[in-house]
Design a protein that fits this description.
- By secondary structure, the protein is of the alpha+beta class.
- Among the domains are: about 140 residues, no CATH class; about 160 residues, Histidine kinase-like ATPase, C-terminal domain (Heat Shock Protein 90, 2-Layer Sandwich).
- Helices cover about 50% and strands about 15% of the residues.
- The chain has 13 helices and 18 strands.
- The strands form six sheets. Strands 12-14-15-17-16 form a five-stranded mixed sheet, with helices on one face.
């Protein structure tokens, strides 16, 4: 009794589960891709906004460093706003606007984007960053007039040419104060190395304007140091700019220095910074708060609204529903013919049930293959029954004759004379031949037929076969001829090959009338040795050529086993040739004759006298 397929092993269920998993993976992958793409776009937009913010802050800080108030910033602010498309507002510390690109009365963002203070924030030295310290553009009293600027530029050119003559490559840069300085080719500050020829001391000497500003800075620094009661053991260096990079030689004032890492040194540096801010304060704009249209937004994140979530889940559910429906429909159509095949396969073998072919896909191909298998099984069953009947008939006739004569002799009705014994011996020989043929076929079918291969000359093989059958052929009035082209060699079992060729010669002799000819030919065609056995008999009908090598087949059903053979000779020929990895074929023309052709692998090298006597035993492989 058949049992139902478990639900978890059902093809329909497995297809449904697979489709659902694929749909889920597709939806998840699509959602993940959308999230990643959106987040990346937002991050890129955020980076662009931050870059714009820093550019706005740098430009407004530069304005504050070069102007003593904000009275003229409105034009600059509107220009920046039009270029960036951003709202820009400047307010005092108490959020009182004094410049705004938006309409009057527009509310400010909740928080300021930055504080503009050129005396404490440097947005110039490193683009896109804010550093603590005085903005280098805040030069105040250090700004050189045109005459001094031209003089310093000439001195810098002379120094640069002198450096070039001594193999030092430099370039000239102009500081915000208007002073020209020398820098390395990569733009870094001068390393301090000066060739002896170039050390004239003119370039780095402060100009009158710079000396006046440094005197004022020294006085402010002394006041701070006196307030903190700091006495220095050596002079303290004062530079022309707040940054320690591109500056001329320090300006010294009379105070005694201390260890640069000690507490007094830190106090001295703090006094210098305080004095510089006090000196520059009248020349820079007051501290202001900068408000930007996007400056107060938090870091963008991918946040899906409730409506968008509902849309995503709705689309995902619809995709799943459609996937399940389509998969169920397709799976049902796939399973229906499979169930028909299963039902047909469970029928008893003798019914030979066919299944209808309703599709052109893999299932339809499977149904066609099943029907072909059923037809082959039906033909094999018919052949099996016919073979059993033929074997019984072939064995019954000689056994009946032997039994009958023995019973008559036992009852004393005839004398066991030589003629009777000869007849019984002939019947026993016929019986033995049928049994031997059946044994050879059974061994070939089972793959146990042993072959003793050796290198054989085709011409010698044909001569041996012709010599063995020449007497019988002459007795039948048939001429036996051999024709060999060259000296072809083959790798074969000579005994089995003589058996195969002998069966073909015997069959040709029986079917050739007196006065006819049976010809044995041999030649090679590069890879094979070709044998042909041709006769001038009556030929085989075209409809019977496909059955020539079937077991117990006879061209003339009226022939007896004595005149027509047992019907196993050609079947044995096919098996023996196949065991040698060869092929056999037949062509025939009614009234003209029949030609059997055998193709066998040729030997790689001719046999030597030493190797010709050796034998190699190999099993029959089919």
């Amino acid at each position: 009794m058949s049992r139902a397929v478990p639900l978890r092993r059902s093809l329909l269920v497995r297809l449904l589960v697979t489709s659902v998993l694929i749909a889920l993976c597709s939806v998840a992958a699509t959602a993940w891709l959308a999230v990643q793409t959106t987040t990346r776009a937002i991050q890129e937009e955020q980076g662009q906004v931050l870059a714009e913010d820093m550019d706005i802050l740098s430009r407004l800080s530069g304005y504050a460093a070069t102007h003593s108030d904000w009275s003229g910033v409105a034009g600059t602010l509107r220009t920046i706003s039009r270029r960036t498309g951003r709202r820009i507002a400047l307010t005092t510390g108490d959020r009182t606007p004094f410049a705004d690109s938006a309409a009057r009365g527009t509310s400010l963002p909740p928080r300021a984007a930055a504080t503009i203070d050129p005396l404490r924030t440097d947005t110039y030295t490193e683009p896109g960053a804010q550093r603590s310290g005085v903005d280098p553009r805040a030069v105040g009293p250090y700004r050189l007039p045109a005459t001094e600027r031209l003089l310093v530029a000439k001195l810098a050119t002379v120094r640069q040419l002198c450096f070039a003559r001594n193999g030092v490559r430099t370039r000239t840069d102009r500081m915000p104060s208007g002073r020209t300085v020398l820098t390395d080719e990569d733009g870094s500050a001068d390393s301090g190395y000066v060739p002896t020829e170039c050390a004239d001391g003119l370039l780095n000497t402060p100009t009158p304007t710079e000396r006046k500003a440094l005197d004022a800075l020294s006085a402010l620094t002394r006041t701070c140091l006196d307030r903190h009661q700091v006495l220095l053991g050596r002079p303290v260096a004062l530079s022309l700019a707040a940054t320690g990079g591109a500056t001329p030689a320090p300006y010294l004032f009379e105070k005694r220095g201390v260890d640069r890492n000690g507490a007094l040194a830190r106090t001295a540096n703090a006094c210098v910074d305080e004095a510089r801010r006090r000196q520059l304060a009248p020349y820079v704009a007051p501290v202001a708060q900068l408000f930007l249209g996007t400056g107060d937004r938090p870091v963008p994140r991918f946040d899906m609204s409730t409506a968008n979530k509902a849309k995503v889940f709705g689309v995902a559910g619809l995709v799943l529903a459609l996937t399940v429906a389509v998969t169920a429909l397709v799976a049902t159509r796939l399973v229906r013919p499979l169930r028909a095949l299963t039902q047909a396969a469970r029928q008893p073998p003798e019914r030979h049930v066919r299944v209808p072919v309703t599709t052109q896909d893999e299932t339809g191909i499977l149904a066609l293959a099943f029907n072909e298998l059923t037809e082959r099984r039906e033909r094999m069953e018919a052949q099996r029954k016919a073979m059993v009947s033929d074997i019984a008939h072939e064995l019954r006739t000689p056994l009946t004759n032997i039994r009958g004569w023995l019973e008559v002799a036992r009852d004393g009705l005839v004398e066991p004379d030589p003629e009777l014994l000869s007849s019984l011996h002939e019947e026993a020989v016929v019986l033995q031949r049928v049994i031997d043929d059946l044994q050879d076929l059974a061994a070939a079918d089972a793959g146990t037929l042993r072959l003793h291969r050796e290198e054989v000359r085709a011409d010698e093989l044909l001569e041996q076969v012709a010599a063995a059958h020449r007497v019988g052929a002459e007795a039948a009035g048939v001429r036996l001829v051999t024709e060999v082209a060259g000296t072809p060699w083959l790798d074969a079992d000579p005994v089995r090959m003589r058996q195969a060729l002998g069966n073909l010669v015997s069959n040709a002799t029986r079917h050739t009338p007196a006065g006819g000819t049976v010809t044995l030919r041999a030649h090679d065609d590069d890879l094979h040795v070709v044998f042909q056995v041709a006769d001038t008999g009556g030929g085989i009908a075209p409809g019977d050529l496909a059955s020539v090598f079937d077991r117990f087949w006879r061209a003339e059903k009226s022939r007896s086993r004595r005149t027509g053979g047992s019907g196993l000779g050609l079947a044995i020929v096919r098996q023996l040739v196949a065991a040698h990895d060869g092929t056999v074929s037949v062509t025939s023309e009614v009234g003209t004759g029949t030609v059997f052709t055998l193709r066998l692998p040729r030997a790689r090298t001719p046999a030597s006298p030493a190797s010709g006597s050796g034998e190699r035993e190999a099993p029959c492989s089919r």
